[in-house]
Please model this.
Amino acid sequence: MMDNQQKEFLSMINKHSMNVVRRETCEGFIAYALSILNPACSLKTDKERAKQIDMKIKNSRMNNDELKHMLNLMTESLELNRNQDFLQRYMLI
Model:
């Protein structure tokens, strides 16, 4: 059963997947989360990797506020139930 955070997260993925391929939406979110949770992956010394992450975020067509909100939803949901594979279950990549 989905909690409210999961429902809202999935709703946002579906909303953005109307304009782009669902995979691009999901990859954009994952790239954003990676850049926030592991800032070393966006260091200027690894310009190619930083460029790839930026492109994935841009291709998702989501803005930073939406991405930040989705990351918060995922975190809240995982705090409610740590025994879930949130991304695989709800993003269906």
Residues 55 and 86 are 24 Å apart (CA to CA). The helical segments are 4-16, 22-37, 47-60, 64-80, 86-91. The radius of gyration is 13 Å. The chain has a mean pLDDT of 81.
